[in-house]
Design goal:
single chain; 10 strands
């Protein structure tokens, strides 16, 4: 159950869902079509983990130039939202920033200091808060080197050279971090630049992810300030500027952008 806190939150989500449906063909997302020509027009490629593992790194990097990849595995386990799962993010008593979306955006500061235990405590209340933690640096990398990890190879190549000490470890906390949220949290448009290797793995629950592609093609890209200078509104679908596609991320899915 999605516990959005305010009417404007519900209105925003419904508008975003309607906007994503505008790109459907025969009432389905283009990336799920049986027709190759329709799937090719999507900015999303869906691969099984077996298909992904069989690809060369160069092939993955080449596909990420134009597509966002969703890698699916069937044997994933949906973890419970409990202390054991939250402890994957670090100490349960660590002091962290928590965004409280139960507070009106026009009211006091939504960002509070708390601990991961606050996510569990609010679930015991009659009216749980919508809490979101966006910055849990991971000291130990839970993922092997990815096929698109050009950052890792770049780090390896410069170790021991000018201004790069050979004993400096790869900066895992800056490159790998976790998120935790209760139901009803969201954020508006932001940039995860295509080809930079951002990837998202869901351990518990699900996450709706809206992906935008410029209506004018690559020449009207997101790197142009003109895209946001006139008609852009962060809390609106902005279908005048781009097309939207939606993916639902659950345990067993990895989104690579």
């Amino acid at each position: 159950m999605c516990l959005l806190q305010f009417q404007q939150d519900h209105d925003w989500l419904l508008a975003m869902l309607d906007a994503a449906r505008c790109s459907h063909v025969d009432d389905m997302p283009k990336y799920l079509s049986d027709l190759d020509s329709i799937r090719a027009s999507s900015i999303v490629d869906v691969l099984t983990v077996q298909e992904y593992n069989a690809m060369l790194s160069a092939d993955v990097l080449g596909r990420l130039r134009l597509k966002n990849l969703v890698v699916v595995r069937e044997d994933a386990v949906d973890r419970a939202f409990d202390k054991n799962t939250l402890s994957l993010l670090g100490s349960l008593e660590a002091s962290v920033n928590i965004h409280d979306l139960s507070l009106d955006v026009s009211g006091p500061n939504r960002v509070k200091r708390g601990s991961p235990l606050d996510f569990l405590h609010t679930l015991d209340q009659d009216h749980p808060k919508a809490l979101s933690g966006l910055d849990f640096p991971l000291c130990h990398d839970p993922f092997p080197v990815q096929k698109f990890s050009s950052d890792f190879w770049a780090w390896t190549e410069v170790q021991g050279k000018g201004f790069c000490k050979s004993r400096n470890p790869y900066p895992v906390p800056e490159m790998r971090w976790g998120l935790a949220s209760t139901s009803g949290t969201y954020h508006y448009f932001h940039l995860d630049a295509n080809g930079y290797g951002t990837f998202v793995v869901v351990d518990c629950g699900c996450k709706l992810w809206f992906l935008a592609s410029p209506r004018g093609g690559e020449e009207a890209g997101f790197d142009s300030i003109d895209m946001y200078a006139v008609d852009f509104e962060a809390s609106e679908p902005n279908l005048n500027l781009w097309n939207l596609e939606l993916v639902v991320l659950k345990p067993g899915t990895k989104l690579c952008v």
